[in-house]
Amino acid sequence: MPDDLYWKTAGDLLKAIQNGLGGTTFSFDDSRNALLAHFQDNVFQFSAAKSQAELIHINSLLNDIDGNLRSFTDFRNACLDAGYQFNVNWLQTEYNTAISGSQMAFQWDRLKDMDYIQYSTVEDDRVRPAHALLDGFTSPPSDPIWNTIYPPNDWNCRCFVIPGLEENAGKVTADPKTFKNKDVIPYYFQHNVGNTKVILDPDGYYKYQAGSGKPKQLQAEKNYGMPSVESLYNRFSFEPKIEFADKAEAYNWFNDIAPQGSITEKDPTGLELQIDRDFISHAIEDHKKEHRENYIGNVLDVIKSPDEIWSNKNDKGKLERYYIKYYRNWPLMLITDIENNIKPYSFVEVTTLDKKGKKILNEKQLINKRKNQLIYRK
């Protein structure tokens, strides 16, 4: 995958997300903190899909429409035209849609518990006829139609929702059969971004799929061109971990830094995570044989200064985030449940035992986590 293109596209779309949410980072108890995590995953997934789609398209330009090999000059000019289309025209449209989508997701978070909400347009001559039909439509947030018509409903859509009044319900109707027509609302916009937390659908638009029809799992070495963990340890010398002698020292450390029972730390993407006493106790007491108390003091450093952050869905389809940092001898990994209020739930030294009982690097475990959306790399 084109590395520079991947990070550039994602970076521009992240700025749109921040614009729509109204900030680059949010406190742990702000609902936008969780939205930011989901949208970062979405943006990087979309960027990967778009980057590969552009690469495939560029490769197709080697030959003209008659199948003849182009001259270098013709090929260069065709690539320049394609690049302008992908990275100027389409990117601007995607940027605008990302702003609208993130705004409407946050709006849903604020209005979903109201009795009624109303669909509104900007009421100018650029409003699409299909969207104009919905102007003023009012119904409870529980109405299933919002899973089809909740804005944005198309690229560059400027429609929005506002608090609604009961007396306006029924004045404007919305037939689900009409609006589920892909020619009225494109099928990859037929969802409620506040619920799905997907603004830009890579599977729907760029058709980024493997032969099985399922989205590809991007891998660190194969798709991102990253070195294996074993080779990293062969090439570089990493800093040592903080190490505690026993559980008492570990608990004393946490009590000193978090006298109220919890502490928050921001990662390099702006996401704020909370480490509480329950997490520390779980790590130490529920994994006694692994002696996680020895390295638990590095957890904030792994959040604040990781070497890699990966976003991935687990076997149950729940979004998780993996923070990996390479220390002298062995890497550490923090696993965070994005679905459950950005709660870390596991902190491990990525090792296993060989047949002789000697501790060795568990590269298989890292291969399983270093995949899908790479959202940060030092």
Secondary structure layout plus pairing:
Layout: H1 3-21, H2 31-60, H3 72-111, E1 117-120, H4 129-132, E2 138-139, H5 146-149, E3 160-163, H6 176-179, H7 193-196, H8 202-205, H9 229-235, H10 247-257, E4 262-266, E5 272-276, H11 277-285, H12 299-304, E6 308-313, E7 319-326, E8 331-337, E9 343-349, E10 351-353, E11 359-361, H13 363-369, E12 373-377
Antiparallel strand pairs: 1-2, 1-3, 4-5, 6-7, 6-12, 7-8, 8-9, 10-11
Helix pairs in contact: 1-2, 1-3, 2-3
Would you kindly provide a written description of the structure presented here, covering whatever features stand out?
With 378 residues, the chain is α+β, with helices and mostly antiparallel strands. It folds into two domains: 3-205, no CATH class; 229-377, no CATH class. Helices cover 39% and strands 16% of the residues. The protein has helices spanning 3-21, 31-60, 72-111, 129-132, 146-149, 176-179, 193-196, 202-205, 229-235, 247-257, 277-285, 299-304, 363-369, and strands spanning 117-120, 138-139, 160-163, 262-266, 272-276, 308-313, 319-326, 331-337, 343-349, 351-353, 359-361, 373-377. The strands form four sheets. A five-stranded antiparallel beta sheet has the order 9-8-7-6-12. A three-stranded antiparallel beta sheet has the order 2-1-3. A hairpin with a 4-residue loop joins strand 7 (319-326) and strand 8 (331-337). The chain is flat and about 70 Å long.
